[in-house]
Amino acid sequence: MKQVDLLYTGKAKSVYRTDDPEVYIMKFRDDITAFDGEKKDTLGGKGRYNTEVSSFFFRYLEDHGIRTHYLASVEPAVIAVRSLTMIPLEVIVRNVAAGSIVRRYPFREGEPLDPPVIIIDYKSDAHHDPMLNDDLIYALGLATPEELDQIKATALAINELLSEYLDLRGITLVDFKIEFGRYEGEIVVGDEISMDSMRLWDKETGTSLDKDVYRFGKGDVMETYAAVAKRILSPPWGEPA
Ligand code: 5GP
């Protein structure tokens, strides 16, 4: 399999076609951005940590019956993925109020959201990712009712799996964003599941273990990413390695 041409370049990843139409190459760059791209930096090693965590979670989800685009590791910050046709939705699942939901609605930061709240944004830089509702999703032709039902059910199933996994490692999954695509008529999880796309708090101290460290200058971003990647890839606390 040979990399051919650049298909898409986002704020932190680039996707290339290969000579196999079924396979794309996804490169996790060291670029990091926040606030709609207003804050940006390049942090050596970030791409590698996000790749390790994303790859691990994709394999974990596959082991639990959820289809993802993940195929194989290629290089430390490069993976081979299925060639999904991406659906421009940012599907956000929230277990605890934080971030934009606290700014926009009368929630207190840290307030549990039970059952979890799903928010779906339109992935469009030109429109600044506005929040959608089901009717808008249908009117814009972004997904059918059947697809949207499946997207929401899968997002909630992923939430349960990730929350439980992280909880055993002393981490609260506050919220996360995932994206889906279509592949051979099926809805499949794409994009990434990493410290850039999840909000993670230490269960004991409430310390941020994710991109909020970068957004709000809460500490050393790479130290945090390295430590949380290690924690995620380790056995549950209290169990022998
Ligand atoms: P918020 O709406 O509070 O800014 O974000 C909610 C969750 O979704 C956070 O975990 C955040 O990292 C993730 N998220 C929201 N929008 C984006 C985005 O455009 N890119 C990435 N990587 N994550 C996002």
Average pLDDT confidence is: 97
User: Order of strands across the biggest sheet?
Assistant: 1-2-3-7-6
CATH topology of the largest domain, which one? D-amino Acid Aminotransferase, Chain A, domain 1
Strand content: 25-35%
Shape descriptor reads globular
Hetero compounds: guanosine-5'-monophosphate
What does this structure look like?
This protein has 241 residues and is an alpha+beta fold. It folds into 2 domains: 3-82, Phosphorylase Kinase, domain 1; 86-221, ATP-grasp fold, B domain (D-amino Acid Aminotransferase, Chain A, domain 1, 2-Layer Sandwich). 28% of the residues lie in helices and 33% in strands. The protein has 6 helices and 14 strands. The protein has helices at 46-63, 100-104, 134-139, 145-167, 212-215, 221-232; strands at 3-9, 13-18, 23-28, 31-34, 39-42, 70-75, 78-82, 85-86, 89-96, 112-122, 171-178, 180-183, 186-189, 198-202. The strands form 4 sheets. Strands 1-2-3-7-6 form a 5-stranded antiparallel beta sheet. Strands 10-9-11-14 form a 4-stranded antiparallel beta sheet, with helices on one face. Strands 8-12-13 form a 3-stranded antiparallel beta sheet, covered by helices on one side. Helix 1 (46-63) runs parallel beside helix 6 (221-232). It starts with a strand and ends in a 9-residue tail after the last helix. 35% of the residues are buried. The mean pLDDT is 97. Bound molecules: guanosine-5'-monophosphate (5GP). Guanosine-5'-monophosphate binds at residues 90, 92, 99-100, 175-177, 196-199, 211. Guanosine-5'-monophosphate (5GP) binds at residues 90, 92, 99-100, 175-177, 196-199, 211.
